[in-house]
Amino acid sequence: MALLLNFFFGKPDDWKQWFAAEMPELDVRFWPEVGNRAEIDVIACGSLPAGEFKTFPNLKLIISLLAGPDLLLQDPAVPKDVPIVRAGDPNGDTMMNEVTLLHVLRHHRHMPAYAAAQQRAEWINLPRLPARDRKVGVMGLGVIGLAAANTLKSIGFQVAGWVRTARKIDGIDVFVGHDQFDAFLRRSEILVNLLPLTRETENVLNAAAFAQLPEGAAVINLGRGGHIVDADLIAALDSGHLAAATLDVFRVEPLPKDDPFWKHPKITVMPHASRRIEAKPMVPRIADAIRRLHGARPLENIVDRARGY
Ligand code: NDP
């Protein structure tokens, strides 16, 4: 029995020390020093290089260190019968709350337009609205989306969310499924995408969706690059229908030097820099998942392969 950890955040010595304190009996190995592959029964990672998942004959559990399990689900080497659980904080991510608030406030207060006006030495006057008069729409009210939406609500924004399954949330208007998508878009002056990338959500931000947004709306993509049809976004900005966009995620990362997003005057490019994943708090959650795997308690935070998240 051994855990293979393929991390891209935190230092190896820190991880070792935290696991030694949390679960001293656990044999923890660090990619790529795998040792005997037959001894590995749990892998915690964001992904592994192509084909690697097939080389662990006794794999029983995969722990996703990323909020979005899309890379794992797209990997044909990931065995279909091995459960995948998520190791993120079930209460959301404070840095994702910060970055959502940052970009929403930036568009709410027209900062991109003021920055452009400054380049022209032009003293402009744009509408100033209090947050209570601004309608923000959050696509996805999951672990991260709900905490971010609640942060926006606490500032006073009129917040709505779009989800798959109906529920009531105090102070947030919930729109459900395809039938209510257009109504959700029509009221969203600032749109924040925090969906997982699935078969259903791929290309969800396309020309038809942008056309439903109010004139002058702003789009903030914090989900995945595959959610946006790039050419449709540029067309909606160039036509003047959308005022601005902030993109943190892209179909190809790092964004290629010749991508038109870099130089577009209405687009802010962020290099997938929304948060730093906290390694230490993940250790007890990884340990708990391993105890559940070997004990009587059922696994928690399981990724539903059929839904894709
Ligand atoms: P969750 O899996 O906890 O929640 C997903 C949410 O999306 C749920 O509310 C779900 O609805 C909704 N949803 C899924 N499919 C659909 C659909 N077809 N139509 C409408 N709603 C849908 O995810 P998290 O909140 O933890 O994370 C969301 C995503 O944010 C991640 O998958 C990742 O892509 C992105 N992310 C980006 C980061 C960055 O650095 N930019 C960092 C972290 C995450 P329901 O509640 O009804 O199931």
Order of strands in the sheet with most strands:
8-7-6-9-10-11-12
Mean pLDDT: 97
Specify the overall morphology: elongated
Number of strands: 12
Helix vs. strand class: alpha/beta
The percent range for helix content is 25-40%
Order of helices and strands: EHEEEHEHHEHEEHEHEHEEH
Separate helix tally: 9
Radius of gyration, in Å, reads 21 Å
Cofactors and ligands: NADPH dihydro-nicotinamide-adenine-dinucleotide phosphate
Largest sheet: 7 strands, parallel
**End-to-end Cα distance:** 27 Å
Beta-strand fraction estimate: 15-25%
Which stretches of 5+ consecutive residues score pLDDT under 50?
none
Report what the structure shows.
This protein is 28% helix and 18% strand. Helix 3 crosses helix 5. It is elongated. It has 309 residues and is of the alpha/beta class. The chain is built from 9 helices and 12 strands. The model has no long low-confidence stretch (mean pLDDT 97). The strands form 2 sheets. It has a 7-stranded parallel β-sheet. Strand 9 (190-193), helix 7 (207-212) and strand 10 (217-221) form a beta-alpha-beta unit. It binds NADPH dihydro-nicotinamide-adenine-dinucleotide phosphate. NADPH dihydro-nicotinamide-adenine-dinucleotide phosphate binds at residues 67-68, 96, 140-145, 162-165, 194-198, 200-201, 222-224, 248-249, 272, 274-275, 309. NADPH dihydro-nicotinamide-adenine-dinucleotide phosphate (NDP) binds at residues 67-68, 96, 140-145, 162-165, 194-198, 200-201, 222-224, 248-249, 272, 274-275, 309.
